[in-house]
Sequence to fold (687 residues):
Amino acid sequence: MNQDRTILIVDDEAELREMVRGIFARAGYGRVVTAGSGPEALSLCASARPDLVILDVMMPGMDGFEVLRELRRTSAVPVLMLTARSEAEDKFTGFESGADDYLAKPFLPRELLFRAQAILRRTGRAAGRSVRLAAAEVDLENASVRRGDQTFPLTAKELQLFRKLYENAGRIVTTGALCETVCGPVWQGYESTLATHIRHLREKMEANPSRPVSIVTVKGLGYRLELPRGDGR
Amino acid sequence: MNPVQRFFRRYVFSVVGLLGLLVVTNMAVLVILMGVSEVQTPTDTFQITDFCDHLTGSGDSWQADSDALALLDRDQCWAMVLNPAGQTVWEYQMPADLPRSYTAAQVAQFSRWYLADWPVTVWGLEDGSLAVVGRPRGSMAKYYVAVERDYWDFLVLLACAIFYANILLVVVLFLHSARRVEKAMGPILNAIRSLADGKPVRLREDGELAEINASLNRAAAYITQKDNTRAEWIRGISHDIRTPLSVMLGYASELEESGELPDWARQRAGSIRRQTERLTRLVADLNLTTRLEYALRPIARQRLDGAELARQAVSEVLNEGLEDSYSITFTEEVPGAHLEVAADPALMDRMLLNLLRNCIRHNPGGCAISVTAAPCREGGCLFVIADDGCGVSAAQLNSLNRGTPLAGKEADSLGEHGLGLRIVRQIVRAHKGRLTFGATVPHGLTVSIWIGGR
Fold:
């Protein structure tokens, strides 16, 4: 389902470039191109039209931030920054210059794949615009859920919450993080409303809303979206 | 009051106290001496009354017994008795050149002053005769003092006033000089204290102690430079090591998950992956601990929700994948209570993750970890992380609570030479929080951390 996605990897270290290329190739991404420097990356961006750029920060000559600034003049392609530094200021500079996410080296392949997948989902570039769940199919484009022969519309907040869970599919999303998605940084006191939204989502998506299998409660922590095996995890 | 002020205050008190003691001691000695001299007159000096007790007779006929003569001989004195008319009626060892008859004016004169340079003492006898004893020349000083009573009183008052004014002056001068020394030394002593605490020092390089100030500034600059160099060096290494670690971690993880390899090879790849992750954390911890120690990592405080911080840390550990032998539960002591803390989110996350990972690393056989976020009367949030694992010895618990570094085997048993805990301690200190270690009943370790809300 990611066969038609193109990933561009930019890093001056050939071995790392090769390793990352292998990770994406084995994960089923159809086209993976690599660049060893900033200028090369910019010209590849124009010619190969990638769906996602994995960009290293520390490169000789033109560094990752410069490449990103240059790239943003012409393109809105999602960018995941890789950096050897894990300081907060790097993260800030990264987001300021328009990066979609940030991952500190060293990283586990599954972490990289997860972040890449989350960005693609968030920016609507993931394979397909619909998400298949155990008992239903969610159409993110039209904000609707089809279960059997019934179709339920999703409210704006329900869609926001589902997107957040979907971006982090298979992982626990805390109550606070979900509330923050809907309310912004001051979310305290919203927990009971969140529970109502989740109940509504379950009523639309689960075969048996009182025994959910897709939107699972993790006691005391939050919720986790379970996708059927082999579906984008 | 800081130690410098305390030192000077003690110094001033002790010197003023010593002055007081000196005055009191002097007075006491004086009073005692006066008392002694009242009670016990010196027996070895000549007393004319003693001599007169041994003198008998009247009119023109007087005798001295042998005791009286012995008294005179002992002190090389001479003696005479004048009758009321001023004639010498008895004499002993009297110099020949002295007249044997005196007028009333002469008697009045020598009784007050000297008789031809001989110091003499006189004593009136019963019938109006006068006993005169001459003592060796130069053996006595005779002064005659007679002043007006008012003037005498004034003199006594003046003497007292001068005495007390002097004491006051001494105290004032001493306080002034102590103040000057304090003013000059205070900044230096404070700077030394700052150096000991690892804080930056900047003294003015002027005045009498300019050289000492300049030396301290140089010492501080040297220490800072050394610290920064070390921190930058560690930062550089931790940066350069990340790319090779990425490649190792990537390939090891790939091999571990590869279906084409036999189990033993995948297990070994898994071991390489785990050790590489450990190495990664170790380097990152080393970097963070150095930056925290030398205050190179600014603390970006925000208003955060304590319960949510704990939920995120627990979720992160669970999302990383936890072996079945471990379990983590999170509870809010008062569900729905807003536990506001003012803290750096990245450091809070790091602190809780370090503690959770410590529980896992310290109990390789598995354990149940419980995380609780509880409200506190003084505000903020109390995080309690407890496991039911093997726990630590009483000695280790003691030194954990005292914050003294563990040595040798004890540190090793806490993993990574206690670096994870050291960072936890540094983060708690940077947030002015409290950290306590206790034992879980029946076994295991409980760590409680309080972080304030303001």
In short: Residues 257 and 266 of chain B are 7 Å apart (CA to CA). Chain B has four domains: 3-40+146-187, 48-134, 212-292, 301-451. Residues 48-134 of chain B form one domain. The first strand of chain B starts at residue 55 and ends at 58.
